[in-house]
Records
---
Amino acid sequence: MSLVVVGSVAYDGVETPHGKVPRMLGGACTYISLAASFFTKPHIVAVVGDDFAQEDVDLLAGHGIDLEGLERVPGKTFFWAGVYSHDMNERETITTELNVFANFQPKLPERYRSQPYLLLGNIQPELQKQVRDQMGGLRLSGGDTMNYWISDYRDQLLATIADWDFLLINDSEAKMLSGETNLRRAAAKVLDMGPHTLVIKRGEYGAVLFRRDCHFMAPGYLLEEVFDPTGAGDCFAGGFIGYLAGQGINTKGGKIDVAELRRAVIYGSVMGSFCCEKFGVDRFRTLTRAEIDNRYNEFKNCTDF
Amino acid sequence: MSLVVVGSVAYDGVETPHGKVPRMLGGACTYISLAASFFTKPHIVAVVGDDFAQEDVDLLAGHGIDLEGLERVPGKTFFWAGVYSHDMNERETITTELNVFANFQPKLPERYRSQPYLLLGNIQPELQKQVRDQMGGLRLSGGDTMNYWISDYRDQLLATIADWDFLLINDSEAKMLSGETNLRRAAAKVLDMGPHTLVIKRGEYGAVLFRRDCHFMAPGYLLEEVFDPTGAGDCFAGGFIGYLAGQGINTKGGKIDVAELRRAVIYGSVMGSFCCEKFGVDRFRTLTRAEIDNRYNEFKNCTDF
């Protein structure tokens, strides 16, 4: 069962207390699809410039990612640079050069349109909607957004997420979207906007899955060393949707196996934790499914009572 | 199996977004012993002034708390007042009047000395040590401390906790005590200071139990309404030690049932969550053991995968 992922493919410059990398592969679509590739076959829709390196194409292709929807246009690839605080809980953006991403119009290859799973990375809500509207026979779709779309494109965003099965956002975004400071009340309001499932990411503190009749709390994995948290939230999303796609989960008729959703949250947390162990996407160069399942079992051991 | 609790009995003035209470029963020893009273019989060691109200004596006695060690001296009871921020994650102290607590010298009634469980609330480390040294036949002892003792009484504190089975502190205190910013490395260093068990409280994000060979993560209960977080950390401590005392747990010979420690962390979280539902100790006036066990089961449902 295959997955379509839409979002940014970029180059990042990152500085953390562990070092500085001036330019490396990044972008939400990159992290999501790499993380998902350990569970299912991702098909990406993104745009890069003519500076996009062959070694980065090879890395993605080497993980079985379908690159037919990776458009290449004249100009430079989206570039972002930032510096993390000492405790890694805050980061300051130094540069955002949208470059070819500024005019990104997602183009879905014909054979992507019948794929059953869709993850819409954080892009303009209207574009997210256009992509979803072109998909036929979706079993499960959802995505991410951010504070900018919540505040300045609220109506478009509400029209977009109304059709989604799930929304994956962080706690401050959930509070902003709902106007509630209490997480549980915020979640109830967001679930009234359309999605039957809401996952609120809380960074190092884990994630909470909300449904109308229950919620599930997953702790954050306690890493001994956080090298670079860039992309961790996107890897969470990739692990979450990747696992569900790999299991062939179906929500048609409004029913869903909540036990599978819970496992998907843990796999999301697992993939987010691995992401932080090295700079950029480096951890995924060597990661194995056996390591992933070992960490999943560690989560079980650390939470069981 | 009975428990001795040492610490402050006080009056608090608290303002939260839900209202303002100028004077109500408070203090670490009060919260710890009330929370523990649902599992075991607490015996308290504390000091109050001649303004301490009979209705507050009655509340404590009504929960089966042994008050023989509650010393009453001329003067006023310890008074603290503070204001919470809108999201309740920060609080500002308005007044701290130590009053009779300034010269607190814990006096252990003779029949307290053979009790098997001891919880030392946050007081001067030297006093904590004096109390513990008077106890014979302890099965399990430990306690709390705070940033002031960690920074200004470090040597005394280290000499004190060296004898403890467990230390219960919050994440910033753990980082300060260890000099490590990473929680897992901080915990490893603290466990080298003596205690075989460390519980790090993370406020709304729950708690982590650390042992040399494993750790256990408990999420924070998601309340729909936090009325007043005052005393929640102390109620966590009361639920934790209270449950273990009630179960008659024994660490002699260095062995301990880790499954029971995990359950104790959940009972601690349960008691901390109830504490926040009303101002001060009000929730404990009506709380029942059945409500406690229901919430324990809610924790199971919200974390199982």
---
Amino acid sequence: MTPRSHPQAERLHGLYVILDPGVAGERDLIYMAREAIAGGAHLIQYRDKIREKGEQYAIAGALQALCRENGALFFMNDHVDIALAIEADGVHVGQRDLPVAVVRRIVPEAMLVGASTNNLEEARLAQADGADYVSVGRLFPTGSKEDTRSATLEMLHAVKAAIAVPVCGIGGINESNIAGVIDTGADMAAVISAVVGAEDVREATRRLAGRFS
Amino acid sequence: MTPRSHPQAERLHGLYVILDPGVAGERDLIYMAREAIAGGAHLIQYRDKIREKGEQYAIAGALQALCRENGALFFMNDHVDIALAIEADGVHVGQRDLPVAVVRRIVPEAMLVGASTNNLEEARLAQADGADYVSVGRLFPTGSKEDTRSATLEMLHAVKAAIAVPVCGIGGINESNIAGVIDTGADMAAVISAVVGAEDVREATRRLAGRFS
């Protein structure tokens, strides 16, 4: 199968901020998204393993509207049904969520699909199954997601060299190590704690997003 | 809005067995579904608050195939995306899941949609929003689902009298109280612990399903 070439593919570039209430705690997600976009985030993802789906649906709808008004792309994590319900720009699935090929089958052609991968084989398979981008991680130690497998900057570089769709580094990325991620040729760098755990979300985002030329 | 009149509506009748690994424990869900259908269950629902969605997808696909081969209807609880992916007969949502009107908008016309309700107002709204049936509960004390509101047999009867779509009693129903549920005029009785907690699933189902004429 030929890799997908999505008309929005060029927007899959820059700082990718993941809003996870498991990390953000009680802080308002809409506020944080607004601050992150003002700080230069190009992509926003909502990942919620806590709230019931009805509440997530309302939050996701507000985040999608905010992103659309401000030129950022919005991705819903895991819940393809919520992505469909709010007509999200995209949906992101992990290796233990619905398979990429299944997601591709039940979402509109225009919806972006991202996939978490850990190695070359998973990245190639995700691309073949119709992913519009793949993330590669966990690159550095992180407290924000349990039970993840580790990956290296070398692996990130190897994936970038091996596949055609954009690639995103993820896992423990912060101000002190983001340069190495960008140096691999990765199109995007996903951050969680470095932004949603920062006192000044906008400033933290600005410092990280500024590393992308 | 006119209540939906689904071509399969007449099949919304009889014993409705909910497979919940939170109650069933380590017991094999496919085995239990097979036994329940052999015992006379007309409808099977898969409700899983434990497993990741990829694993649920595989199990749901197997349950749907089993039900289809054996003339039972299969419903996926909560996860509309899994229901879409496996082309389930139906999907069932609670008050804190995706709203019925939203679900109706993202599933095919032919897919049955069930909704949990607790009172007349919720039942009428669910019907107006396009539900093909409503459940009413929790009728009796139950250990299988936390944080539910109680309802009475009188409320179940009142809902049955007030709406056009089929009605299902739920919550703590067992051999000792199912007759009262059926006496209200309810079309279906949903059981969880009484079947999936029974040593002999087929026999437990047979005794309960036998109460429906």
